[in-house]
Amino acid sequence: MRGNARRVRVKARRLLRLYSQWHETHREDLQRRCVVLLGEILLVEPRFSLRHEFQKAF
Protein backbone atom coordinates (compact mmCIF):
# COMPACT_ATOMS: atom_id res chain seq x y z
CA MET A 1 0.00 0.00 0.00
CA ARG A 2 2.83 2.42 0.75
CA GLY A 3 4.21 1.98 -2.74
CA ASN A 4 0.85 2.94 -4.23
CA ALA A 5 0.57 6.00 -2.01
CA ARG A 6 4.04 7.14 -3.01
CA ARG A 7 3.25 6.68 -6.71
CA VAL A 8 0.02 8.64 -6.31
CA ARG A 9 1.86 11.52 -4.61
CA VAL A 10 4.49 11.60 -7.36
CA LYS A 11 1.82 11.58 -10.06
CA ALA A 12 -0.16 14.26 -8.20
CA ARG A 13 2.89 16.54 -8.13
CA ARG A 14 3.46 15.93 -11.83
CA LEU A 15 -0.23 16.66 -12.50
CA LEU A 16 0.04 19.99 -10.68
CA ARG A 17 3.13 20.95 -12.70
CA LEU A 18 1.39 20.02 -15.94
CA TYR A 19 -1.72 21.92 -14.90
CA SER A 20 0.36 25.02 -14.12
CA GLN A 21 2.02 24.82 -17.53
CA TRP A 22 -1.32 24.31 -19.23
CA HIS A 23 -2.87 27.23 -17.34
CA GLU A 24 -0.13 29.53 -18.66
CA THR A 25 -0.06 28.26 -22.25
CA HIS A 26 -3.44 26.56 -22.89
CA ARG A 27 -1.71 23.99 -25.10
CA GLU A 28 -3.95 21.07 -26.03
CA ASP A 29 -1.21 18.47 -25.64
CA LEU A 30 -0.72 19.50 -22.00
CA GLN A 31 -4.46 19.34 -21.42
CA ARG A 32 -4.57 15.78 -22.77
CA ARG A 33 -1.59 14.75 -20.63
CA CYS A 34 -3.32 16.17 -17.54
CA VAL A 35 -6.48 14.21 -18.23
CA VAL A 36 -4.54 10.98 -18.87
CA LEU A 37 -2.50 11.43 -15.70
CA LEU A 38 -5.61 12.17 -13.65
CA GLY A 39 -7.18 8.98 -15.04
CA GLU A 40 -4.11 6.98 -13.99
CA ILE A 41 -4.30 8.43 -10.48
CA LEU A 42 -8.01 7.68 -10.18
CA LEU A 43 -7.48 4.07 -11.26
CA VAL A 44 -5.10 3.54 -8.34
CA GLU A 45 -6.84 5.80 -5.81
CA PRO A 46 -10.54 6.31 -6.68
CA ARG A 47 -11.08 8.67 -3.72
CA PHE A 48 -8.23 10.98 -4.77
CA SER A 49 -9.03 14.63 -4.07
CA LEU A 50 -7.49 17.36 -6.17
CA ARG A 51 -8.73 20.00 -3.75
CA HIS A 52 -6.25 18.98 -1.07
CA GLU A 53 -3.35 18.83 -3.52
CA PHE A 54 -4.18 22.26 -4.99
CA GLN A 55 -4.46 23.85 -1.56
CA LYS A 56 -1.04 22.51 -0.60
CA ALA A 57 0.55 23.65 -3.87
CA PHE A 58 -1.06 27.05 -4.28
Number of strands: 0
> Strand percentage, roughly?
under 5%
Number of domains: 1
Give the CA-based shape: globular
Terminal CA distance: 27 Å
Helix content: over 70%
Helix/strand order: HHH
Give the overall pLDDT as a whole number.
89
User: Helix count?
Assistant: 3
From the alpha carbons, calculate the radius of gyration and give it in angstroms: 11 Å
| Major sheet | none
Residue stretches low in confidence (pLDDT < 50, at least 5 long) are none
Structural class: mainly alpha
Question: How is this structure best described in words?
Answer:
Helix 1 packs antiparallel against helix 2. The protein has three helices and no strands. It is an all-alpha fold. Helices cover 84% and strands 0% of the residues. It has one domain (2-57).
Observed structural traits:
single chain; 58 residues; mainly alpha; globular
Compact overview of the structure:
This protein is mostly helical and 58 residues long. It contains three helices and no strands.
SSE order and pairing:
Elements: H1 2-25, H2 28-44, H3 50-57
Helix pairs in contact: 1-2
